[in-house]
Design goal:
The complex is a heterodimer of chains A (about 425) and B (about 260). Chain A is α/β, with parallel strands linked by helices and about 425 residues long. Chain A is about 60% helix and about 10% strand. Chain A has two domains: about 5-195, Rossmann fold (3-Layer(aba) Sandwich), CATH 3.40.50.11890; about 205-425, Rossmann fold, CATH 3.40.50.11900. Chain B has two domains: about 5-220, Bifunctional carbon monoxide dehydrogenase/acetyl-coa synthase(codh/acs), Chain M, domain 3 (2-Layer Sandwich); about 230-260. Chain B contains seven helices and nine strands, in the order αβαβββββαββααβαα. The chains are: A alpha/beta (about 425), B alpha/beta (about 260).
Chain lengths: ~425, ~260
């Protein structure tokens, strides 16, 4: 395994190591929560590096492909999209984004484009097998085409579950069948087996995580909101990424809920002078978390009370039988996963989220960032605006790139927010 | 006549059926006017009546946890005579009888108003999620479920299903002035008793989906279908559609071969 292929992983791991030290020295509870996650991420990076170096099986996947199955098979896995996402930690991300534009043009979602760039430039380890994702957007399928034509990756076995469009019984049955085929594929190509007892254990633990997640989300309804931006996405990551079905993930959720409950009882919020409650209806990218969101809190008292990734329906998976577990996972993967469920399905998935979140979280304004890679969602702008008008809540469409600041600069975005808040009489 | 009328009748049959199975069925008659509905209630009702949050430790009873069972939907009709205004039917234990319990929860709201039509459907549907309008009562913020909590404070004041029913009636009549009659069925007797409601709910949701689609079409937006008026010859996506049809044919043949091999 060439060092070049492990460069990104090692670089990121080393930065995370520094962050853990900083977080653990911080007095704030949410920094301590972040420290725990960063430590798990380091462990995870080390595992992938070890597997790559020692020729042990590991897979690449996306985050919405029922990772409960990988956890139950004790199969190390890595998400395609993690590196460009967490790449905001490294100083090289801007150069990587620019380089990816020269390879692919700039109308493909940045995070997918940079992932593709890393593959083309041989900067990521080649996995034993890959689980692809055929929804929610065309961008993900373009990545598969790239892989098929890449000399290092073209022989990597790949499987992707075929997603139905609807959510009826027939669709769930179909997708449950697809997940079973995925298991057969993984067993064939990695040598790992899915043991039903272990599967049940992972799902039961995962159910606990989801139950705590909804508890936490209810706490974010408090005025003032106990926590700020970012934790919603972290919760989503814990429930569906490295700590899926892991008791450490459940412990993390318990700590999160305990801290939020304490703040709610004390009527204390992240932002002492909370004036605007935002619904950020897209990904809370790491890069924006260093700049835009802190500015919103400090300058405007504007808190991201809920975001797209923080808001997920709750499906308690019935573990009484193998069939019920696959059915439950099918529903969770198709109908519950943030971003996937909105963009895969009908437009009403976006709109019904807006209605519930605005009501439940006492939202003052809805923000559709209009990420350049989310053209599918952007087709709904008119309907989202109409829905917000009926709810009597202002709607802001920005038009930006969640990862590339050269698309719309941070100053432009801040200016849009300032004008919007002023015009709407907010803050 | 409206599209849900048959289901209103089915609900009445359902309640009788539960009585026939020996379930405890109570009927409570509530006043009609909004002012009378909220008069004498042990908790506040109206915008910002509640802080919105009931912590786990402050919960007297939980309703509709997915493990216990949950089913909720709304039916409306433009024949208010089909609805017995002010009637609350409770099948199963009341809140006061269940301290610390996690009860299965069925909630069926039936509203009637001569002026009601498909145009009001979405407002009615959304109104079920009453946010902070009932002190001591919180509906948890997860879509697809009616999962709620009653606080210890509210229970101490005497909060029960009559309270909840009257509060919901007041909220609905205030928010949608066209409503003339509201009837509610609550079910807490058992998960198995929710199954007939689940069947009705599935049909109601299908109809509701069609109503939402038609409402958007009326505004000029087609939520679901292609927008070229079914004229494939002028549709730029026709090659994609054709390819999908070929794939479907291939998959059906494969599935058929597998079925034959199995038999």
């Amino acid at each position: 395994m060439s060092e070049r292929r492990l460069q990104k992983l090692i670089g990121e791991r080393d930065v995370l190591d520094v962050m853990v030290k900083a977080f653990t020295q911080s007095p704030t509870a949410d920094d301590k929560l972040s420290a725990g996650l960063a430590e798990v991420e380091i462990e995870h990076h080390n595992e992938i590096i070890r597997c790559a170096e020692e020729g042990k099986p590991f897979i690449f996947s996306y985050f919405a492909c029922a990772p409960e199955i990988y956890a139950a098979m004790d199969l190390p896995w890595y998400s395609f999209l993690s590196l460009p996402f967490t790449g905001a930690l490294l100083p090289t991300l801007k150069d990587d984004i620019d380089a990816s534009k020269r390879l692919f043009g700039n109308d493909l979602c940045t995070i997918l484009r940079v992932s593709g760039y890393y593959i083309e430039e041989d900067l990521v380890p080649v996995p034993t097998a890959m689980i692809g994702l055929l929804h929610p957007c065309d961008g993900t399928t373009v990545l598969h085409q790239l892989i098929a034509s890449n000399e290092n990756w073209c022989n990597v076995p790949i499987f992707a579950c075929d997603p139905p469009y609807w959510e009826d019984e027939r669709s769930m049955n179909y997708y449950a069948g697809e997940l079973k085929r995925m298991v057969s594929f993984l067993e064939e190509h990695t040598g790992r087996k899915l043991d039903m007892g272990r599967f049940r254990e992972v799902i039961e633990e995962s159910n606990k995580q989801y139950e705590l997640w909804i508890e936490y989300n209810d706490l974010r309804r408090a005025v003032p909101c106990p926590h700020g931006y970012g934790l919603g996405l972290q919760a989503s990551g814990v429930a569906q990424s490295n700590l899926v079905g892991d008791p450490r993930g459940t412990a993390w959720f318990r700590d999160l809920v305990a801290d939020a409950e304490k703040l709610v009882r004390e009527k204390r919020g992240k932002v002492p002078n909370e004036r605007i409650r935002l619904f950020w209806f897209d990904v809370v990218s790491l890069d924006l978390s260093f700049d835009l969101f802190p500015w919103l809190e400090e300058e405007w008292g504007a808190v991201v009370v809920m975001d797209m990734f923080g808001y997920a329906p709750y499906t308690m998976i019935d573990t009484s039988s193998e069939e019920s577990m696959f059915q439950g996972l099918a529903k969770r993967a198709l109908c519950d996963m943030p971003m996937i469920r909105q963009a895969r399905g009908v437009a009403d998935n976006f709109l019904s989220d807006i209605v519930r979140v605005v009501k439940d979280y006492k939202i003052d304004c809805v923000v559709w960032p209009g990420h350049m890679g989310h053209k599918d969602g952007s087709a709904n702008i008119g309907m989202m605006r109409e829905t917000c008008r009926e709810l009597g809540v202002p709607f802001l469409h920005i038009g930006m790139d969640l990862f590339d600041k050269s698309y719309t600069t941070i100053d432009e975005i801040k200016d849009k927010f300032s004008q919007f808040f002023t015009a709407m009489g907010l803050g | 006549m409206s599209i849900f009328d048959a289901y209103v009748t089915k609900l009445a049959e359902y309640a009788e059926g539960m009585r026939g199975r020996g379930r405890q069925v109570r009927e409570i008659d509530c006043p009609a006017a909004v002012s009378k509905l909220v008069e004498g209630l042990p908790v506040r009702v109206g915008p910002q009546a509640s802080s919105g949050i009931i912590l786990r430790g402050d919960t007297f009873v939980e309703l509709g946890n997915p493990e216990a069972g949950s089913c909720a939907f709304i039916l409306w009709t433009n024949s208010p005579s089909l609805i017995r205004d002010g009637k609350v039917t409770l099948i199963g234990p009341d809140i006061q009888e269940s301290p610390g319990a996690s009860l299965p929860f069925g909630q069926v709201l039936m509203v009637g108003g001569a002026g009601l039509s498909e145009a009001e459907h979405e407002v009615l549907d959304h109104s079920q999620y009453i946010s902070d309008q009932i002190e001591g009562y919180m509906i948890r913020s997860t879509s697809q479920l009616m999962w709620s909590r009653v606080s210890k404070d509210a229970a101490e004041k005497g909060f029960c299903f009559e309270t909840l029913g009257r509060a919901l009636m007041a909220v609905f009549k205030s928010e949608v002035p066209k409503i003339e009659a509201v009837e509610i069925v609550f079910v807490t007797s058992g998960k198995e008793d929710l199954q007939p409601l689940d069947s009705i709910a599935a049909q109601v949701r299908k109809i509701a989906k069609d109503i939402v689609t038609e409402n958007w079409k009326a505004r000029g937006i087609d939520l679901l279908e292609c927008t070229f008026g079914w004229d494939c010859s002028s549709c730029p996506d026709q090659p994609v559609c054709d390819e999908i049809k070929d794939l479907i044919t291939v998959r059906k043949k494969q599935a058929s071969k597998i079925e034959k091999a199995k038999s």
